[in-house]
Amino acid sequence: MNKVYTAVALALVVSLPATAEVIKRSDGYTANCDNATQREDGTPLAASEIKNVWYYLDKTWGNLTTPDLSVLMSGGCKSTLIDTKPLAVGTYHKYAVTIDTDDQSSEVSPQLADPLVIQNAKPKAPGNIR
């Protein structure tokens, strides 16, 4: 019997959703990231060698062709307020790509960040109850 309970408990843990950052669609979202400090061969990448970072929000991780939203962070990662009103309610992956001063693109950042869940604000309660 213990094996059955252990299997059921394990299945429940495996099926639990990852934590997510939840925002109201009307609030917007502050995107941020850490600049790459190395090239893929392990050599250092100076901040002065970073031309841009493209920051993406999309329902599919790694979509660079038609992302739901892309934001250019000129000169590298920096806090950037994103207007989320044009996005549909739903769950979005956050990822980024570094472009160096030679216009070489990095691979897509690893999928380590918690997803972003965008919701509509709840309606206000009825008033003037009689």
Describe the 3D structure.
By secondary structure, this protein is mainly beta. The chain has a single domain (28-119), classed as Sandwich (Immunoglobulin-like). The protein has one helix at 2-15, and strands at residues 21-24, 29-31, 50-58, 69-74, 80-82, 90-100, 116-119. The strands form 2 sheets. A 5-stranded mixed β-sheet has the order 1-7-6-3-4, with no helix packed on it. Strands 2-5 form a two-stranded antiparallel sheet. The radius of gyration is 20 Å and the shape is elongated.
Summarize the structure.
This protein has 130 residues and is mainly beta. Helix content is 11%, strand content 31%.
CATH class group: Mainly Beta
How many helices? The count is: 1
CATH topology: Immunoglobulin-like
Number-wise, the strands total 7
- What's the CATH architecture name? Sandwich
Mean pLDDT: 87
Helical percent range?
10-25%
Approximate strand percentage: 25-35%
Radius of gyration: 20 Å
Order of helices and strands: HEEEEEEE
User: Please, how many domains?
Assistant: 1
Major beta sheet, strand line-up: 1-7-6-3-4
Low-confidence runs of at least 5 consecutive residues? 1-17
Shape call: elongated
| Major sheet details | 5 strands, mixed
Main structural class: mainly beta
Distance between the termini: 56 Å
Keywords:
single chain; 130 residues; Immunoglobulin-like; 5-stranded mixed sheet; two-stranded antiparallel ribbon; 7 strands; 11% helix
